[in-house]
Amino acid sequence: MFKEKYFEVQNLSAGYYDKEIVHNVSFSVEPHTLTALIGPNGCGKTTLLKSIVNLLEYRGKCFLHGEELKEFSIRKLARKISYIPQRSGIHVSMSVLDVVLMGYNPVLKLLERPNKKQKQRAKEAIISVGLSEYMEKDYLTLSEGQKQLVLLARTMIEDTELLILDEPDSALDFQNRYLILNILKQMADKEEKAGILCIHDPSIALEFCQQIVVMKEGKIIDILHPQTDSLERMEKALQSIYGNVTLSKCMDRNDHTHIVLLWEGDSCVQ
Question: Which residues neighbour 75 within 8 Å (Cβ) at sequence distance 6 or greater?
Answer without folding.
Answer: 106
